[in-house]
Specification:
This protein folds into two domains: 31 residues; 215 residues, Urease accessory protein UreF (Orthogonal Bundle). Helix 7 runs antiparallel to helix 8. By secondary structure, the chain is mainly alpha-helical. The protein is 70% helix and 0% strand.
């Protein structure tokens, strides 16, 4: 009788395990590792780098009457992600991640200097630097004092930019490159939508409509990013650069850039 009970218990346990495997296969393992939470933390709007104070030229489009509706906002955000942000932020972030994984500190310093030289608008150039320095200062608290990220910051000095420092940090934290950049992409898109909400202005519901409508753009941008290399960095976006320069002389404005 005891042997029969043992067999029954073992069978029941095996069946429960099988059901768990089936559920995990159908729904995915919902557990998140520490790296996943770290990605959420460094891309959160509450991460203290001051990104909410910059529109990167969007405010000029709004004040010029070129972005005045939900549809305008959707078109602007989608175009920005597929052009300017892809080549000036995501691609440098990808290149930085690869250089960091190779331990190439000199290469990272060269990348920073090239990236700074590629930005013609003063406000945009200064914004990238300020956000990079603040990101580096805060992210350093989450890293080893003598680790790769610390060595990169020490070598780059004031030439630290947001996309490169982000890529180096994620590489040092063993976060997969494309996962890191996908979070970065969404955080930037969300920030632009918030700018539209405050400046156009739009409602919260309209903001959610924009983020929902541009989901296919996220996939397009990430697929395009995989095929890009250093020769594609900072492809020209003259319209946005011109608006960024005009932003310096706006009579009244809410954003630094």
């Amino acid at each position: 009788m005891d042997r029969i009970m043992d067999i029954a218990t073992t069978t029941a346990t095996a069946m429960a395990l099988a059901r768990s495997i089936i559920i995990m296969a159908e729904c995915g393992d919902m557990r998140m590792n520490e790296s996943s939470y770290l990605l959420l933390q460094i891309n959160d709007a509450a991460f203290p780098i001051g990104s909410f104070t910059h529109s990167f030229g969007l405010e000029t489009y709004i004040l010029n009457g070129q972005v005045t509706t939900t549809k305008d906002g959707e078109r602007y955000v989608a175009q920005n992600l597929k052009s300017s942000f892809l080549y000036s932020d995501l691609l440098p972030g990808k290149l930085a991640w690869k250089l960091a994984r190779a331990g190439d500190i000199d290469g990272l310093v060269r990348l920073e200097r090239e990236l700074r030289a590629y930005r013609p608008a003063r406000e945009t150039r200064e914004a990238a630097s300020k956000l990079g320095i603040r990101f580096a200062r805060t992210a350093a608290l989450l890293c080893e004092e003598d680790g790769l990220f610390a060595r990169y910051v020490g070598a780059a000095g004031r030439d630290v930019s947001r996309p490169v420092s982000y890529g180096v940090f994620c590489a040092d934290a063993n976060i997969a490159c494309m996962d890191a950049l996908a979070h970065y992409l969404y955080a930037h898109a969300s920030g632009m939508v918030t700018c539209c909400l405050k400046t156009v202005p739009l409602s919260q519901s309209e903001g959610q409509h924009i983020l929902t409508a541009i989901r296919p753009v996220f996939r397009q941008v990430m697929e395009e990013l995989e095929s890009l290399n250093a020769d594609d960095m900072m492809r020209s976006c003259p319209g946005l650069e011109a608006r960024s320069m005009q932003h310096e002389r706006l009579y009244s404005r809410m954003y630094i850039s």
